[in-house]
Specification:
266 residues; Rossmann fold; 27% strand; globular
Amino acid sequence: MIEARSTTMANPDASGLAVSGLRLTVGDATLVEAASFCLRAGELVALLGPNGAGKTTLLRGAVGLVRPAAGWAQVEGDDTVAMAPRRRARQLAYLPQNRPLAWPSPVRDVVALGRFAHGAALGRLRGADRTAVERALAACDLQQLAGRSTATLSGGELARVHCARAFAAEAPLLIADEPVAELDPYHQFRVMDLIRAFVAEGGGALVVLHDLALANRYASRLIWMKGGRILADGTPAATLTTQRLADIYGVRGRIDGTRVEIEGPL
C-alpha cells in the first residue's frame, strides 16, 4: 500500500509531468508496475530505492523513451511517447545515468548540445541560443573552463558540464538519474545546489539519489521504490522513518533532524 501519498496525484489535466498507472516490461519481465506520480514547477523530488528497484526504467518511461505496457506519462497533457523528440526535449531536460561523450570536445560545445532541440547549430550559436549557453556556463561556474577539452576535466567538473548542458535546454523540468554518482562530497553538494537553484527559479526536478542525507537535505518530496513499485510518496518528514529504511533497504538507521545515519544491515 502506498503511504503518505502526495496531494499532487497524476491526472490528465495536471501541469508539469504526470504519470499514471505506468507498467513497463522487458520480454516477460515486469520492471515497473502501477507507478503514478506528478512533478510540477517548484518541486525538487528525490526518487529513492535499492539497486534494481526500477528507478531508471521509471524515468525512461516517464520521459517517453520506453513505451509502456499499460498506463501513461504526459507533459502538459501530451503523451511523452507520442511527442516529437525535439518538442519533448524542450519540455523535459533528461540527464541519464550513463553520459558518454563520443569524443573529447570543448566544454562550450558540449553545453551547446542542450540547444539542439531549439534548432541551434554547433559552432554557430546566435541570439537566444548563445545567451542560454552562456547563462548555463555561468550557473555551473564553467566560464573559465569553456574552451577546455572535456578530456582534461575532473569528474566533478564533467558532472557540472552535463548539468550545464541540461540547463541550457531551458526546459521547465529536469529529470536526472544519479547526477551525483561517483562525486566527492563537495561536488555532490555543488551539483545539488545547482539543481536547487534551478528549482528556486521556477523549474521542477526529479532526481535519483542513493544518499539519503542529501535527499533529506534538498528534496521537498521523496518517492520510495522497491520491486518495481512506488511504496511511498510524500515529504521527508512524513516518509523518512527508521521503519522505511528497514522496509526499503533492509538496514537499521537513525534519523536526527536532517541527519540520517545508517548503522548496518538488519
